[in-house]
Every structure is written in C-alpha cells, then in structure tokens.
Automatic annotation (TrEMBL):
GO terms for cellular component: membrane. It is found in: Membrane. It comes from Rhipicephalus zambeziensis. Residues 636-923 form the Piezo non-specific cation channel cap domain. This is Protein, containing Piezo RRas bdg domain.
C-alpha cells in the first residue's frame, strides 16, 4: 500500500519534476555558454549572441560531448518525454532509499507541485478558525478568482492575497490592547457581537490570534518562490491567440531582441513625439538603422486636442458626445479586465480537459451523511444524540428535511450540468454555491443555533464546510479544464480488477442509486434510444463489466486442469458459507436464549396492588416506591439457591437470573385510599354476599424506565377467586354492618412474580414446594376512624398475611420485614441493549417470518436458477462484446445517433442469437472472428 501511494503521489508531481529538471539542465547549459557572464545591454547581448552562434556551429560536437560528460546521458537531457523522470529519479538514487523515505519524498514533491492548492486549504482553515468578516474576502477571492484563473492564478492575485493578509495581521494586532472597551467582557453565545463578527475580538484564552494568517503568508511566499524558480511569477501576454502564433513568420535573433526592446519601451512613460533611435554602429550585423518611435500615452486625449485645434468652437451636443465617449472609455478600462477574465475562462486558447466529477460527488456524498448524523449542530435546541432520537419518535423536523432536500437537489443539478457539459452553467452554479455556503455557514447558521462557528463542539459544520471547500476547488479545476468528450460510463469501470469489481458490486447494492443514475443519464444525454433500450444497454454493460473482471482474475490466478480443489478453498469459502447459513437458521433462538446473558438488568421503580370485591370500588390500594423496592441481597440469593438445590425445575429457572435481577417489594398493610362507597352500594354488596358467591380480584402492576430498550413501560396482571364459602361471606357482611372482626379469604396473593420484557406478569410455579403453593391467604379488616378532630368518620381496609420466620420466604429471614406488611419477590427479565432492540422487537416468530425467510430467498437466488443464464454468465471472452458497448458510448458522445442505433441493434441481435454470441465470445487464439 505504501508503494502504491508513493507511485500515485509521483504521478501527481511528474510534470513539475520534469519541468524543474529541464530548467536546471538548461540553466547549466546557459551558464556554460556565457562563460564571461550575462549581457547587460542590448548591444552587448547581440554581440555575444552572434559570437556564440558562430562558435556553436564550429564546435557543436565538442559542446555535445562536454554536456554529455557532465550529465551522464545526452538523451536524458534533451528528451521531452515525461517517462524519463522515473529514470532520472533512479539515477539520483531515489530508488535505493527505503520505502518510507521514498514516500516522504513523494509527499514533498506532491505538495511542492500543488503548492497553490495548499495555499487554498490554509485559507479555508484560516476562515474556519476566524469566521469573521475580516477573513471572509480570502476564501471568496480563492474560489472566485484564484482557482478560476486560466491557466494559473496571476501575479496580481497572489500580491493581493499577500497584501490583504498582512493588513489582517496588523489590524488584529492593533485591537489586542486592553484599552478597548469590548475586551473587558466577552459575551457568551452572541455570535454576532460586533467585535467578534468583525474579527477584532481579543480572545484571552487564545494567544495565537494570527497564527493561521502568518502560516498563510509563509505558504504564499513559498509558493511565490516556487513560481519564480519555474519562471512563472511574471504574467505573460495572454492577448496573443494560437492562430496569431501559428501565422507569425520566423524572425531572426536580432528581430527578437528588438521586439523585446519595443515591448519594454511600452511599459515606460514617454512623452508624445519623442523618438528614440539606435545608431547602426551600435548594432553589428544589421542591415541598417532601426528607429523606435514611442506611441502616444493617451490616444483619446491626443485626438481630443487635435479636434480642438481644427474646430475651435464646439456646440453643446458635440461636447456631450465627447464627454460621453470619455465616460465609456473610462468604464471600459475597468470592465475590460473582468471581460478578459471570463473570456479566458470560458474560451481559453488551449484547454487540457479532465474529469473530476466522481471526486466532487464523493465530497457531496460525505457531506450528506455529515448532515444526517450531525444534525444537532445544524439546528436549534438539538442534542448530541443526533437524528436517531427523532427517528425513534417517528418525527422528522422540517429544517432537517429542507437541508437534506437542498443537498440532494445540488447533487442532481451538478449531475445535470456534468452530463450537458455546460461550462457557463457550471460557472454560474459555482458562484451561486460560493455565496450561499458562506452566507449560510457564517451568518444564518450561527443566528439559528446561537453558537459561534469557531466553537470546539461545533465539529459537524466545520467538517461539512471543509469538505465543501474541497468540492469547490475541484469544481473550479473542472471549469478551467473543461469537460472531456467521453464522460459516459461508471467511475468504477475504468479498470478490471477485484477492487473495481467489489466496488461496483457495492454500488449496485445501494438502493435506488443505479436507477437514479440511469434515469438522469437518459434525461440529460443526447441519444436516439428510448428509456427501455437505455436500461437494457446499461444492464448489458454492467453484466459484461463484471464478466470481464472475472475473466481477468481467472487469467491472473489460473487453476491447473484436472486438479482437485484445495482443502483451504473448501474449508475457507465453503466452511464460511456453511457456518453463515447455520447461523441464520438458529439466529432467532440463539438471540433470545442469550437474552439474560447479554441483556441489561431493569428493576421496576413502582409497584401498585389493588384488591376489589365484586364490581364495586376497590377496597384496598397500595403502592411501593423507592425504599420499599430493593434488590435482593446476595446472601439471601445464595440461601434461595440452596433451598431449591434438590428441585431440577427450580434450578433450571434460577440459572437464567442472578441476584441483581431479583427485587423484594414491601407493601404497607393499610390501604392508602379511603373506601368511599355510598350507603346504597354498601347495602347492595351485603345483599350479594348473603345471596351467592362473590368474586375477589387482586391486580398488580410494575412500572419501569424503558429508555432505549424494547421493554414495555408498565407490566401487570390480575388474579380472581370466588368466595363461595358461606361462613366467609357472612363474616364479610357482618363486618360491613360494623362488627369488628377479621376475615381470611382464599389464597390470592402470589409468592413469586415474573416481570417479563413484554406481556403479562405471571406467577412463577417453578419455585413451588409441597408445603407452600404459589398463592397465599390474606386477612381482611375494615377500619373506621376520624382524622384531625373532624366530625366525619372515614373507612379503610387493612390487609395482612400469615407469616413466620420460615413462611413465606425462609431465605429472607430478617429481610422480609414485619408481618403487618405484604411482601413480594419479583424476578425481572433482562432487557436487550439498544443495538439489539430493533431485532428483538419482532419476537421469535417475527424474526423467522421476516429475517430468516428473506435471507433464505437471497441465498436460494444465489445458489439456484443459474442454469437459465449460463449463456450470458459463462462467456469465455467478453472483449468483443465489451468493445461494442464502448463503441456505442463513443458514437453517442460524438452525436452520431444513427450509428448509435445501428450498433445497438447489432448488440441486441447478438444477444438474441446464441450461435452468433458463441462466435463472438470464443477465445481469440482458438477461432478468431472472421
């Protein structure tokens, strides 16, 4: 991987290294030619040039031999091929360095060769660090001026960056003194505070207020040095077109020097009418004297003076025309640079096309997920839980939806411009995106979230902005270079190896991505195909590409004929697939059987018990909270296990729990609710007790905190018994009449309860013993009394159970409390963590009917049904079919739509004719196609 990265970095810097070597070699040759130094005047230069040419023709072989001896190879020195760069690296000894050293050298050359990109990135980092109006012009100039300059940013641009950055450093330094009022108290959560938004705020916790500005200056000066070393610092004359250069006749060396002198004189201030002459005696070898006449400085003003001399008196209308002409000349003088800038950008003299759309789409793709998972930083009042908290509530915030739709719309628009190859539209889109992004990120977003962009916790917007700036740099590079003629085809289909094969497989697995791309390509591409034929073509190419990757892999890793498959392949590939299928079959049962192992303990925080007689108002209601709900002590848990060690059913049940899963509930025997039944209802209840059996119902409910789990919040159940014993019914009726006595009802209170994740809370029968059943008897008593010296009397019920040291919970002993209280022992099922809650929510039957069956159908589709596609999946040689598909793409790009129809008809006929397809897909060395 390190070697591959080194090779990739070397390919990035190959042009720079070639030019640098050629310049160094030519500089060495020039130094060898001018032994006595360089010329200082035009005449001296001409004399030495003539002498050098005469000396060169007489001693050409000697010079070639000398240069060859100094460099080692004349062909390497004079060759213009870029392939010689790697050989020169090897000659310099780079190939003998360790891999890590070569990687570092490649990184250095890659940075040096793209030093302007490094400057752009530091400008972006500076804006992310400052986020102020003072630093905002820097990224705007970088994205709207420097990165769009053809062929490279001008000297004026870099001087502007240097000057403005130096001004920023000075301004920031001046406002760091303490005598400014706004430096005393820095407001919190006020991103639009004037000193802060202007960029002149003194940050007491940050002394490196100008660190990135100074770093930017350092890198720009380094870039300036690199441009000077390559001779690219001074701007060239861009008004000369290619046609003019081609039509220009060859000139002699003397004429070239004179032309250079004329151009140099144009930059000097010369008075009108002044004539500068070069005497013939100062120009040896020339045929005669050359007179250089300087042009007037201002032709418009000269013409105006001449017009005044001819016509002394001008009318008002004529003066208006003159002033209007001067006004237009002045405006055009300032508008002309902008017009030339866009003219060079949209219609350059030369253009080396490129295609970086895939990298731009990758940036937008990453930003899409940053916005999804980091939405809390893009909105108001968002928590760091992200958008997952909204999805759990089945809610979608409107701002979140708007941002996602806007991001998706930008991707679609960019794709449309790419397919149409619309450079002007791409330029307008670039300008629009630059302004919208900077207004949104540094003005709208801080106002919405009330958080400054530079806060450390504000990471998602920073990351989104940085990646978007990389997108803008790539987009500007695409605009400068233009779109290539051939852009159709998938980015992953450029090579035919395993990496591209699996990347293409992953691309095909992304839902709707293949369909969206196919539809957009058909909409915005000039073609003669209808949608059905277009989709057929895309499907054929996708299939042929995968076959090409498979055939190439078979060629690179051949299997000897007649040899058995190795055990490593069988147990490696086959064993993994066998294990995966077995795991899918038993996964639901395995998941729920391990629930009490991987689950989390969830004890209830409230227990409510109600007792009602017949269909009347409950006679008893009590709740246990906080201290009345406690975890079972570990020593009591040990005694519980020892008590049931002889019961296999009890041991199997207790094996699924531990002490942390068991809770002891203590309920007060006195009802917390007053029995407020009316006298007529009380008389009706007495009559019912004297007449027939009355149902007695006991209900219980447990409440839990179920955040991020799949458990139900409230779980409960009830038990109903019939009081059929006449003596018990008569005792209850007498108690309702006012006779103070106690009544024991049939067993109704459970000993052990199970609180599951979902469903009803049932009684545990696995812990029954011959002496103790699952339920206990209760003793009821109706109490009457007055409160706070009130004349009104109230009635409430008192409930007790029969208890001893060995009943009902001998393992609790002193922990079961007073016999006046009611005790319950509750076993709580563990709940699955949040990661498994979505799966376990379907239940065992739900997992088998959804997950297992769906996976089984996918595996069946992979292992069966291949006999119907043998003719298309087992082509031994797909090169001809693949070339036919590429030819269709080529003629489509060339707007040869008739030829596109013919070639596609040929492809369809090929797939309709098995015999022809067999001929086309035969190996070329066996039966070549005629």
């Amino acid at each position: 991987m390190l070697i591959s990265a080194t090779a990739k970095l070397n390919s990035v810097s190959r042009d720079y290294r070639y030019v640098a070597r050629k310049l160094a070699d030519e500089k060495r040759i020039v130094k060898a030619q001018f032994v006595h130094g360089l010329a200082t005047t035009l005449g001296e230069h001409t004399v030495k040039s003539r002498k050098f040419h005469f000396h060169e023709h007489s001693t050409e072989g000697h010079h070639a031999k000398t240069v060859s001896d100094k460099k080692g190879s004349e062909e390497m020195l004079l060759s213009g091929s870029l392939e010689m760069v790697d050989g020169l690296d090897k000659q310099d000894g780079h190939k003998h360095h360790p891999s890590l050293v070569r990687f570092m050298i490649a990184c250095y050359y890659a940075i040096v060769s793209r030093s302007e990109v490094v400057c752009y990135l530091v400008i972006v980092l500076n804006q992310m660090k400052s986020a102020s109006l003072l630093s905002l012009p820097l990224p705007l100039m970088a994205f709207l001026w420097g990165s769009l300059s053809v062929p490279r940013p001008t000297k004026t641009f870099w001087i502007t960056i240097i000057t403005y950055t130096e001004a920023i450093v000075v301004v920031k330094y001046l406002f760091q003194f303490d005598f400014f009022d706004w430096n005393d108290s820095v407001p919190v959560n006020r991103p639009f505070d004037p000193p802060r938004i202007l960029g002149i705020e003194k940050r007491k916790e940050d002394n490196d207020y100008a660190l990135y500005d100074l770093l930017l200056l350092l890198l720009v000066f380094f870039h300036r040095f690199m441009l000077k070393s390559l001779g690219l610092w001074k701007d060239t004359d861009r008004s000369v077109s290619v046609s003019a250069i081609q039509q220009q006749e060859p000139v002699s060396h003397e004429e070239q020097y004179v032309t250079a002198a004329i151009r140099a004189s144009e930059h000097t201030t010369t008075a009108p009418g002044l004539i500068t002459s070069v005497p013939p005696e100062q120009q040896p070898g020339t045929s005669g004297a050359l007179e250089l006449s300087a042009l007037p400085v201002d032709t418009a003003s000269s013409a105006s003076r001449c017009y005044d001399d001819v016509i002394p008196g001008q009318s008002g209308l004529e003066e208006s025309f003159v002033h209007l002409s001067k006004l237009f000349d002045g405006i055009s003088r300032y508008v002309e640079p902008f017009r030339n800038f866009f003219e060079n950008l949209l219609h350059p003299v030369y253009r080396v096309t490129t295609d970086v759309y895939a990298y731009m789409f990758f940036c937008d793709f990453i930003n899409f997920f940053i916005m999804v998972f980091g939405y809390w930083a893009f909105g108001t009042g968002g928590s760091e839980d992200g958008v997952a908290s909204y999805f759990q509530k089945n809610e979608v915030p409107v701002p979140f939806l708007i941002m996602l739709l806007a991001q998706f719309a930008l991707i679609v628009i960019d794709r449309a411009l790419y397919l149409r190859k619309y450079i002007l539209g791409k330029l307008i889109f670039q300008v629009f995106i630059v302004f919208v992004i900077h207004i949104w990120m540094f003005f709208v977003l801080p106002g919405i979230s009330q958080r400054s962009f530079v806060e450390e916790k504000n990471l998602p917007p920073k990351l989104w902005y940085f990646i978007k700036c990389i997108y803008l740099i790539l987009s500007a590079y695409q605009i400068r270079s233009g779109y290539p003629t051939r852009i159709l085809g998938n980015f992953f289909c450029k090579k035919y190896n395993y990496i591209n094969y699996f990347l293409f497989k992953g691309y095909m697995l992304i839902p709707f991505l293949y369909e969206l791309r196919s539809l957009m390509d058909w909409i915005w591409t000039d073609t003669s195909m209808n949608l059905t034929n277009w989709l057929k073509m895309e499907d054929i190419f996708a299939n042929v590409f995968q076959l090409k990757c498979q055939r190439r892999a078979e060629e690179e890793y051949p299997t000897p004929r007649g040899s058995r498959r190795s055990s490593l392949t069988k147990y490696g590939l086959g064993g993994v697939m066998l294990f995966a299928i077995i795991l899918v079959i038993w996964f639901p049962l395995l998941l729920f059987s391990l629930g009490n192992t991987v689950g989390q303990t969830l004890l209830p925080h409230d227990c409510t018990v109600e007792l009602s007689l017949g269909g009347y108002e409950p006679i008893f209601k009590i709740s246990a909270q906080q201290g009345n709900l406690r975890q079972l002590p570990y020593d009591s848990w040990v005694r519980l296990q020892a008590e049931y060690k002889s019961s296999a059913a009890a041991q199997a049940f207790l094996a699924n729990y531990d002490a942390a899963d068991v809770a002891v509930v203590t309920l007060n025997g006195n009802s917390t609710a007053i029995w407020t039944v009316s006298p007529p209802s009380q008389e009706a209840l007495i009559a019912e007790l004297n007449r027939s059996a009355v149902p007695l119902r006991l209900s219980w409910a447990f409440s839990r905190s179920v955040d991020n789990t799949n458990a139900e919040k409230v779980v409960g159940n009830e038990r109903t018994v019939q009081i059929s014993d006449k003596a018990v019914r008569q005792s209850l009726a007498e108690m309702l009449h006012g006779t103070p006595n106690n009544v024991t009802v049939p067993p109704i209170l459970p000993r052990f309860l199970l609180v599951p994740r979902k469903g009803k809370s049932d009684v545990i029968r696995a812990l029954d013993t011959p002496g103790m059943g699952p339920y206990r008897n209760l003793t009821l008593r109706l109490r009457t009394g007055a409160f706070n010296n009130l004349s009104a009397r109230s009635e409430w019920w008192e409930v007790q159970e029969h208890c001893t040291d060995s009943y009902p919970y001998p393992f609790l002993r002193d922990d079961q409390g007073s016999c006046t209280d009611l005790s319950l022992v509750v076993f709580n099922d563990k709940v699955f963590p949040q990661a498994l809650s979505q799966l376990t929510g379907y239940g065992i039957a739900g997992l088998y009917t959804t997950f297992v069956l769906v996976v089984s159908r996918l595996i069946r589709g992979f292992m069966a049904g291949s006999s119907f596609t043998i003719m298309f999946d087992d082509m031994p040689n797909v090169d001809r079919v693949l070339q036919l598909c590429l030819d269709i793409y080529l003629v489509r790009e060339s707007r040869e739509l008739s030829l596109e129809e013919d070639l596609f008809a040929k492809l369809i006929f090929l797939y309709r004719s098995p015999e022809t397809l067999i001929k086309w897909t035969r190996p070329a060395d066996q039966h070549p196609l005629a």
